[in-house]
Amino acid sequence: MNCGDWEERIALYAGGDLGAPDSSAVERHLAGCGECRGFAQGISDSLALLRAAHEEPIAAGHYAAVRAAVLDRLARGPSPWPRWLWAPALAAGLAVAGFFLTVRPVQKPRVYVAAVRPPVELPAVPVRPAKAVPQPAPVRRPRPQRTVAPKPPTPVEPLVVKLITNDPDVVIYWIAD
Amino acid sequence: MKALATPAMTQPLDGMEAVTQAIQAARSGDLAAFEILMRRHERLVLATALRLLGKMEDAQDASQEVFLRLYRNLGKVQDSGNLAGWLYRVTVNVCRDLCGRRPAETSVEAVEELASPGADPQQAATRHERQRALELSLRQLSAKQRTALVLRDLEGLSTADVAEILGTSQATVRAQVFQARIKIKCFVERYFRRGV
What is the 3-state secondary structure (H, E, C) of B23-57? Predict the structure, then answer.
């Protein structure tokens, strides 16, 4: 009989993992095979050693340190932000900052549109030729002192209305101040 | 998940009621009640994490994370009615995450972290040897074999419970456990024969 085929079942049997029929088969094999009995005994012994080591008490200070750290964290209260939100929030902030640093908005010149009235057609007015008046030589006047003086009223041009009659030889001019 | 019934977790009825009351009180912000919950389950969490991680400092970090997750999920735990099973599952997950983030240690220091009730040097030496053998044996295993063996053979959970905690089949757990037991046997025999 090849005992290698029994290894798995013996290892499970030693840990109590086999059902009744398989356990009986293993026990029958062990009864007749000294090598496999030694193998089973070795597994049982090593498991017993590990369990004994695992059951050794852990120093109370280690438990106390864990409790203190947890209670301290809880006493400080929960973070207003879920922990998973920090990374995306930080990434989004950096992306926005990078966008504004690299892509500056181009300032376009403003276009002002003035309201323009249509020109009013006025009747043609004959312009009298101006008389040549001798101009005196320009005299350099002293610079007036910088004082704020009220502006004189600007002269108003007289209104000239040309009335054309049926008779082409008769034209009436009406001049009003 | 049904409530686990293992030697480490079997509690009298009044104990279960006390746990339920403590969960209820902790949900309303009673930190003293939550401390009671931690005290009842701290050995389960810390010892399991220590065997899975092999280092007390890491095991303490993992335990803190497990209890903080417990506090945040008290409602779910109360609904499931199986605090121990929930704690085992979260402990395994947290330790798996920690293992992925931290490099494996080569020193054996868990031995120094044990309580020392007696001053008998012979006893202390024996305990020291046992702890060293345990720690080194577990390092012979793959992560899955180690987790299965710790839960099944050291914590004493049933194969069905281990399968449920690990989210796998019982056949897979049995395969991992039998391979782990054979490796452990070979290592322990070598260790005590040669004095590794």
Answer: HHHHHCCCHHHHHHHHHHHHHHHHHHHHHHHCCHH
ipTM: 0.81
Mean pLDDT of chain B: 84
CATH topology for B112-196 is Arc Repressor Mutant, subunit A (1.10.10)
Q: Check CB contact of B189 with chain A, cutoff 8 Å.
A: yes
Question: What is the C-alpha to C-alpha distance for residues B148 and B142, in angstroms, rounded to an integer?
Answer: 10
Residue of B90, B83, B78 whose CA lies nearest to B3: B83
Residue B170 gets the label, from left (phi > 0), alpha (psi -120 to 50) or beta, of alpha
Task: Look at residues B51, B36, B158 and name the one whose alpha carbon lies nearest to residue B113.
Answer: B51
Q: How far away is chain A from the Cα of B54, in angstroms, using its nearest Cα? A: 12
CA A87 to chain centre: 13
Cβ-contact A165, A171 below 8 angstroms: yes
Q: DSSP per residue over A36-104, as a string?
A: HHHHHHHHHHHHHHHHHHHTSPBPHHHHHHHHHHHHHHHHT---SS-HHHHHHHHHHHHHHHHHHHHSP
Domain borders along chain A are 3-54, 60-101
| For chain B, domain boundaries | 10-105, 112-196
**The predicted structure's pLDDT at residue A161:** 82
Q: How confident is the model at residue B92 (pLDDT cuts 50, 70, 90)?
A: very high
Distances (CA, A) of B101 to A66, A69, B95, B97, B141: 20, 21, 10, 6, 19
| Residue with the two structure tokens 């209305």 | A161
> Which residue of chain A comes nearest to B63, CA vs CA?
A66
CATH of domain B10-105: 1.10.1740.10
Which residue bears the tokens 């005299």? A139
Q: 3-state class of A143 per DSSP?
A: coil
Which one of B30, B94, B178 would you mutate to disrupt binding with A, by most A Cβ within 10 Å of its Cβ? B178
